[in-house]
Description:
CATH topology of the domain at 443-561: Rossmann fold
CATH architecture of the domain at 443-561: 3-Layer(aba) Sandwich
Structural class: mainly alpha
Number of helices: 31
Amino acid sequence: xxxxxxxxxYFKLILENKQSNQGVTMSSLDGFRDLDFMEQIVxxxxxxxxxxxxxxxxxxxxxxxxxxxxxxxxxxxxVLRELLLRHPKxxxxxxxxxxxxxxxxxxxxxxxxxxxxxxxxLMELVRAWREDRExxxxxxxxLGRIGDHxxxxxxxxxxxxxxxxxxxxxxxxxxxxxxxxxQPRLEAMINANEAPERSGECLATTxxxxxxxLALDSDNALAYLASKIHHANPTARRLxxxxxxxxxxxxxxxxxxxxxxxxxxxxKILLANALGYIGYRAVxxxxxxxxxxxxxxxxxxxxxxxxxxxxIPGMKSIVFLQGAxxxxxxxxxxxxxxxxxxxxxxxxxxxxxxxxxxxxxxxTSEAVRPVLRAVATSGAGTLFxxxxxxxxxxxxxxxxxxxxxxxxxxxxxxxxxSARGMGREAEALRLSGATDEGSWHRKRMLAVDDSEAMxxxxxxxxxxxxxxxxxxxxxxxxLDMVESGDExxxxxxxxxxxxxxxxxxxxxxxxxxxxxxxxILMATTESSKSQARIARNAGVNTFVVKPFTHDxxxxxxVNLVGN
Length: 563
């Protein structure tokens, strides 16, 4: 190690003083092997400083048959690399070197330099090195970096190579080059990963095939990806959904078209989620049509539709969600409506919604109470503060928050009250939970779901069932919490989430020996037995199917871990 540091420091000194050496004739590399360590370092520094291509031939010979000193040989490679990059003709010539190691060295540099002159010899090397996988991979990567479309036939030829690294390099480059001809073969790769015996793992070729189709950006490619939004592999599903969401309004026609045709509940939910994440205003019409027509008809489908609308700004979304408060009775669906409405509401809109709720209180108080409870327990601060000001709804919603909301939600609601100048009510709400939590040992539950409404549901469950609930919006956030030292007695996780899905999270948790016995409960809308098999193989203990009540969730937990 000390020799390497010495080389680095001495080398830097040589370069800093190369101006004073300009009059010195460059020493020949003849007899280089007979020099001592410091003489070799000085000579290599002099060669690099002068950057004379005449030294390349001798450097090549030393590259092929190293002197045997690690520090010297490392510096020699560095000097040769710099000289070859400065002398493209010599670099191209090196592609035909008898030494495979030297030829591969030049191949990598040709790609790094994006050297157009290297195209023809690289194409020849692809065929000559067909049986040498590592060398072939180097060639393909270099061709991709150069970026000449003349390489497309070579990538097509090796598209289904048995070596995944080679196949992935070809798939990726064909996507970058926009090669429409390859689409059927890319689709075949993605389809093959849905076979029962292969669906448990997202293959590398599937990963890059999805990225390549997204790079193609053709109507056919996006329509195909939309049709695979419920791919049999959870990771592939996530990649496809994230890719389509990233496409924004470009992907909308293909998603809405499938939403209008499919009868598959899982597809409908994922399509609604994607449209909501895109947030394109015109999509509100499609979601509203699907909800009004019953195309989004089950509780899970409606939940997804309302939550998606809550991510799409505009009065159409607000008006429809406001009306849905009185059409829906399922507590979980109401949570989605309230959270969406609150997220879209500025103060003036929230006051209008609150006045409508107040007016209905005298007529149908039984219909209003579930709405108020949803506002109080979901942490919908803008709506909550607007309701708390009113003579009829105010006392009711404040009482519900004090009795039913968890500590974090109460604090958030109290801050909303303080912002409206209701300091006394805010303090009373904070004090309402001063003695009801922490008076006994509470089990810690980690609830992971990308749905804000579901995270509110789990937080409320903590107060209901005596759990200290921490929430995370995706598997990556949850994993960070665990890796930072947070300890939990139970994990409840959704299957389909952005960034990191529930299957991947379960797999990573089970890879930690200290968490081998951690109970993992998966909450999902998935109806396929194959998905349950994949989840169990990843380490999930049991399942609860959405939608469910607090009682049903508690029963599942008791069956899993005891009372």
